[in-house]
Structures are given as C-alpha cells and as structure tokens.
Amino acid sequence: MKTRLIIGIFAVGILFLGSCGRVCGAEARNKETYFYRKFEPVQGEPVPFRDFVTDYCYIVDGVTVMVGYYPPGSGGIFSPYDTADDWGDRLLCFGPDGELIFHGRGVMDVYLYKPHFFSSPDGKEILILCQLAFEYYFGADAFLLSGGEINRIGEISIESVLEEESPLTEFIVIERHGSDIRFSFPFEKIVYDPARTCVEIENEDYIYIYRDGELIWTGPTETEVDGFNK
C-alpha cells in the first residue's frame, strides 16, 4: 500500500514539474530581450506582376521583397491599379512559388522609399523599414516579416536634427522586449513628425512600441507638439 502511495506521489510530482517547465518556459520566452541587427540581403530578380515597375528587389528568407510603382496611364492619370489615395511607391512581397503574399498601400508623392532590413538573432523575424524622403528624410514605413507572413507596423515619424547626414534607418535602435518591439533613438534631441509638424524636441527616452498589432508613441501628443510652435 505504501509502495503504491509513494509511486502515485512521485508520478504527480513529475506531471507538476513538467507542467511548470512548460509554463516557466513560456514565461521566459515572453520576457526575452534582444536587439535586431541591420543587414544587407541578397538582391533578387523581380517577380513579373501586372505592369509593376521595380526599383528595389531582395530575397529574404525565401520571400521576394519588391519596392516600386505602377506607371501612370496616358495623360498622366492614375494606373488602373491605383486610386486617388493609394498610389506611388509601394511594397510588394511574393512567396517562394511566386504567389503574392502582401500588397502595400502607395505612399504617393515621395522622392525616396528605400527598404532597409533588420534581423532578430535567430533570423526568424525580419523588420523592413522603408526610408521616406522628399528633399529631406522624414521617417520610415515599418513592416514585420515572420513565418512567411508580413504585416505593416506603421510609420515611425522621427528624424535626427542632423538628418541630412544620418537618416532614421542609420541610427534607429530596435529591441524585442517580451512581446513588444521597441524603436528608440540615441540622441538628446529629435525631430518629431518631420513631414508635417517638423518640431525639434528634447528626447526624454521617447520610443515607439509595437504591441498587439498597434504602434504606440510614448512622446508628446500632436496637440502638445503643436503648442511647441506657438
């Protein structure tokens, strides 16, 4: 009887430890912290798609990443694939078999929309930051590529006060902190919303956080920033 009781207690203990190991392991992964490193992917051959004109083409983890545009129709009107609020340079991604897996919105009348790539240490997550510019840099459009799927993170509207020498994609620091992705800026002063508000502010450790599918800015609100100009 005592032998059966001891065996039963021992079995329950093993089950408890196994369950605890799985839970603790999940919690450890949720608290994992690491930095994304910038890298230059292999250039690739564009996938023929409609009449898309490709400016940049790279192969990343089996995915063909293309940036370009649909040429306007006769008389300078929009392409049949564009609309009045969705035209200009855009990001397209194709799977290993040439299937379209992502069709980004057009960023309209910009002078530059160039992709830059950042990888997690294990290479399972790739961040694509498309540097935006008119005559000057004004932030980047961010995307997350993971497991053969790509999602748009949002626009990171920050530049350095020395933006002509150092665009956002050259100085941004990207860190995974648990389930969050944090975008920070190693300067005492930064330019907020350079394409519209364009205000120089003190950088009080302000960051963008990508959390649960939403890009969150921890700095001053647009109303507060507008007040800096008055």
Determine the structural class based on helices, strands and strand pairing. Answer: alpha+beta
Mean pLDDT across all amino acids:
86
List the uncertain runs.
1-29
- Span between termini: 85 Å
| Proportion of helical residues | 10-25%
Q: How much β-strand is present in the residues?
A: 35-45%
- Record field, number of beta strands: 18
Determine Rg (CA atoms, Å).
Answer: 23 Å
Main sheet properties: 5 strands, antiparallel
Which sequence of strands runs across the widest sheet? Answer: 1-13-14-17-18
Report the total helices. 3
Order of helices and strands: HEEEEEEEEEEEEHEEEEEEH
The shape, in one word, is globular
Verbal overview:
The chain is an alpha+beta fold and 230 residues long. The protein has helices spanning 2-30, 168-171, 222-228, and strands at residues 33-35, 37-39, 42-43, 53-60, 63-69, 90-94, 100-103, 112-119, 125-133, 137-146, 149-156, 158-160, 173-177, 180-184, 189-192, 199-202, 208-211, 214-217. The termini are far apart. The strands form 4 sheets. A 5-stranded antiparallel beta sheet has the order 1-13-14-17-18, with no helix packed on it. It has a 5-stranded antiparallel beta sheet with strand order 2-8-9-10-11, with no helix packed on it. The longest helix has 29 residues, at 2-30. The model is unreliable at 1-29 (pLDDT under 50).
